[in-house]
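Lecture notes, part 5. Sequence design as translation. It can be helpful to think of inverse folding as translation between two languages: the language of shapes and the language of residues. The source text, in structure tokens, appears below.
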């Protein structure tokens, strides 16, 4: 083939069968796990006003400074393709007045997110997230519930090689004190920090923990941890979360250096890390964001949520050899036409079978009967209905069980009931 002129943009990919179907099933399972816990689906636009993200995620974060797909539309409005799902959900919560429907509002979403990062294994520019938000409750047990959802989904999928890490990143009361301590420390190590971190040390010191530079990471290994500076209220909340996780039988490790890459997090921060995924090992992450709604102009509203990277979830299934969903490629009937048969006969049988809710397909390439049998095999059909010849003149068709290579004749009017009998095993 000549060299292709058009390819998917860098960092994006096409999802094709069977991976597309496999992903769909994982999403359906996630939906089931969430629905069972009272979460309801919400769908927000891919485009939002740029200011929403600048305001919520934070001006000094990697996402806002260098990763957003932001453009001016033809009306001169600045729009951004959402890099994450929480700010849009809270925007919708406020705009639609969902608080009037009773609290907490438990919402979940599925959808693509966009960040212009350097593509690598497990890191894309368009990626898919499953996420949930519990809005309106400050109860540490709802943090535990939110965190447990990922663990339950992993369990339902049979995943084992992961670890939950947990931390508290403080609140308005304890952050300023910690900020001061951290700023003092950062001044001492300033010569070992990259230019961006030296800048961050002044504007938003906690963001230095996001830095991926080796030099910064080393210099920061002795930095004071927020967990050691949290106030009694935050500590009590953190203990409540840990107690809740114990009740839900979700094991965890406390990691006092864990911070998240978005400014809006308060109190609880967590991450599920998988073995065998390399550097991009976080499959699900999230935390509490008690000031976010206020930041967006709403009334004070506590909230907590998670988001899970679907590509990384699928990669962890692969790495544990799971989730092949054997029945994936099954089709029930292939309706094959003998050479020269009136295609209308084939087509109306196909309709009749599909109307009875059996998956069915037929030839659209003008293939010989032999080639159609091969096609049926490729599609994973259980049965082939052979239409044509003398059989058809007598008002019958042949049914072939591809699994056992057995074939028998049936009256054409019994097509659907014969398929039913075959599937029930009563033929
Ligand atoms: P990372 O540390 O991998 O950069 P993050 O802290 O930026 O992750 P969040 O913003 O919390 O991630 O997003 C939650 C989840 O979404 C991540 O744990 C990950 O599974 C997934 N994710 C984030 N960015 C990407 C990306 N560029 N490509 C694929 N998945 C991603
Ligand atoms: Mg990131």
């Amino acid at each position: 083939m000549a060299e292709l002129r058009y390819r998917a943009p860098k960092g994006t990919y096409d999802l094709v069968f069977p991976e597309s179907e496999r992903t769909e099933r994982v999403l359906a399972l996630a939906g089931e796990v969430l629905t069972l816990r009272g979460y309801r689906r919400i769908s927000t636009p891919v485009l939002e006003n740029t200011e929403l993200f600048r305001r919520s995620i934070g001006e000094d974060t990697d996402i806002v400074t260098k990763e957003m797909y932001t453009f001016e539309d033809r009306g001169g409005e600045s729009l951004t393709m959402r890099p994450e799902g929480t700010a849009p959900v809270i925007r919708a919560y406020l705009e639609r007045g969902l608080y009037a429907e009773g609290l907490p509002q438990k919402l979940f979403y599925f959808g693509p997110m966009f960040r212009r990062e350097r593509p690598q294994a497990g890191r894309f520019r368009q990626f898919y997230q499953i996420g949930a938000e519990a809005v309106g409750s400050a109860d540490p047990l709802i943090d535990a519930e939110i965190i447990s959802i990922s663990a339950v989904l992993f369990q339902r999928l049979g995943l084992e090689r992961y670890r939950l890490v947990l931390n508290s990143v403080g609140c308005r009361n304890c952050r300023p004190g910690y900020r001061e301590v951290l700023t003092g420390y950062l001044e001492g190590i300033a010569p070992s920090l990259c230019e961006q971190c030296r800048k961050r040390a002044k504007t938003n010191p906690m963001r230095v923990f996001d830095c991926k530079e080796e030099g910064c990471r080393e210099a920061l290994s002795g930095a004071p941890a927020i967990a050691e500076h949290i106030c009694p209220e935050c500590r009590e909340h953190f203990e409540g979360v840990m107690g809740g996780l114990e009740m839900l039988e979700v094991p965890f490790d406390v990691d006092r250096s864990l911070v998240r890459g978005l400014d809006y997090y308060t109190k609880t921060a967590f991450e599920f890390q998988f073995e065998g995924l390399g550097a991009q090992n976080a499959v699900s992450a999230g935390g509490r964001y008690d000031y976010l709604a206020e930041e967006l102009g709403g009334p004070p509203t506590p909230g907590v949520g998670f988001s899970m990277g679907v590509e990384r979830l699928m990669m962890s299934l692969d790495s544990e050899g799971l989730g092949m969903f054997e029945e994936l490629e099954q089709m029930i009937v292939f309706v094959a036409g003998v050479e020269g048969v009136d295609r209308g006969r084939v087509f109306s049988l196909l309709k009749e079978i599909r109307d009875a809710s059996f998956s069915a397909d037929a030839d659209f390439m003008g293939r010989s009967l032999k080639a159609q049998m091969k096609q049926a095999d490729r599609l994973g059909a259980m049965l082939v209905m052979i239409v044509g010849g003398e059989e058809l003149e007598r008002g019958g068709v042949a049914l072939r069980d591809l699994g056992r290579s057995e074939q028998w004749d049936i009256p054409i009017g019994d097509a659907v009931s014969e398929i039913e009998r075959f599937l029930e095993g009563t033929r």
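The translated text above is only one of many valid answers, since several sequences can fold into similar shapes. The pocket of magnesium ion (ligand 2) is lined by residues 261 (CB under 6 Å).
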